[in-house]
Amino acid sequence: MASVLVCGGGNAAQVVSCLFASRYKVTAISLYADEAERWDKAVKEAKGMTCNFQGTNKAVNSMPDLITKDPSAVKNCDVVLFTVPSSFHEQYFRALEPFVQKGTIFAVMPARSGCDFLFKKVMGEKADTLGLAAFETLPWACRFNDWGKTATVLGTKESISAAVVPPLTKSKLDVILKLQGLLGVEPKIVECPNVMSISLGNPGQVIHPGVTYGKWHSWDGKPLPQKPLFYHGVDTQTADVLEGISGDITAICKALKTLDPNFDCSEVKTIMEWYMASYSTSIADGSTLQKAMSTNSAYEGLCHPMKESGGGYVPDFQFRYLSEDVPTGLCFSRGVAELLNVKTPTIDKVLTWAQGKLSKEFLKDGKMNGKDIKDTRAPQAFGVTSKDMLCSFLRIKKEA
Ligand code: NAD
Fold it and tell me: Whose CA is nearest to atom 27 of ligand 1?
């Protein structure tokens, strides 16, 4: 029987721990403050967590075998699931590295961008003996209702894309079969040819910073009487920003193809393609990106992250829509573009604005060498600073 270590303690980690614990041996680890202790207490008080599946009578009640903050627990696990926001991946990789055994598979959901650069940096020579599966997103949309006790699975994806780097002794298929066995029938894992495609195809880097920029870049600073809708509030100018970022990423894919015609970027979707592939059944009008986003019933009622202030609401720019998706998303793509001499006008505009809101400096004088670059997934943060170094990391044979 698979023995799984689930990393994190938020919506996703609690739901996945509950679902998997009904079938496998599950250890949950949270390194965040006293979260493991609080979670253990809450779930025991409730005699197990209950996950309800929205729109059905289905419910699962279960609890992990152990909830801990001790990273040595990884010794006894053959699969490690990262369901913690990507800003904290490095903290977990570093804590687990001294204890991890050969052959362990790390499934990172969602991987966001540049996960393989980080994995190799932290695991060093051990990386080849371990497996990495970089998932494009989380298989479930989920929220807890009563922290540690009850949660709702709002939806399960039918299929989910993952790029796999197997341990030296295993094949990609071995890893996919093992992970598919964990997930069950849905979602079906669809193999993505390389981690670069997961990185460039990361939809969070387009949607979250793009919509936030579109809504707030010319805001007058006055509190609003109510929280504006995030997806359903997208106007045509904001949709243009998203398509601009997506177009910049398409240009990066073209440059990779020019370097090596065999480098497979076919799974990197434009943002419109991604929306239609992910939500075709819940979109009422898919004639344009703006209409697809504003008529997608799966995102009904979701608001911009806001804080109460001055008798109303002001945007919370520290929320993960910028603090996660800029460093572990846009910065990666911008960094790769720079190494390939690709111009990215929309990414530059959004990144320059967003780094100001985060009080960070990633892009400086048009280069990814600002003082906070080390906190990002840009290749430059891992010492990859030339086209040749990028090609060698990607095992690309240059033709141009
Ligand atoms: P979440 O916001 O619930 O995660 C919060 C957790 O992050 C905390 O419980 C803690 O474990 C950890 N954390 C927060 N601050 C920390 C800190 N300072 N130091 C260390 N750890 C800290 O997120 P989630 O909803 O569980 O989502 C996890 C990931 O999955 C995110 O990347 C999210 O974008 C993605 N995702 C989630 C959903 C969903 O439906 N929940 C859907 C698609 C993608």
Answer: 12
Q: Determine whether the shortest distance from the Cβ of 9 to ligand 1 is under 6 A.
A: yes
Domains of the chain, by residue range, sit at 3-192, 199-394
pLDDT digits (tens, 9 = 90+) for 345-360: 999 999 999 999 999 9
Whether 232 is a known active-site residue: answer no
Query: Is the ipTM above a cut-off of 0.85?
Result: yes
Helices (H) and strands (E) in the chain, counts: 14, 14
The C-alpha torsion from 322 through 257 and 341 to 251, rounded to 10°, is: -50
Fold of 3-192: Rossmann fold (3.40.50)
CATH code reported for the domain at 199-394: 1.10.1040.10
Give the Å distance between the CA of 86 and the centre of ligand 1: 8
Return the sign of the alpha-carbon dihedral for residues 300, 304, 308, 311.
negative
Segment 105-115 shows an average pLDDT of 98
> Does the CB atom of residue 214 touch ligand 1 within 6 A?
no
pLDDT digits (tens, 9 = 90+) for 43-97: 999 999 999 998 899 999 999 999 999 999 999 999 999 999 999 999 999 999 9
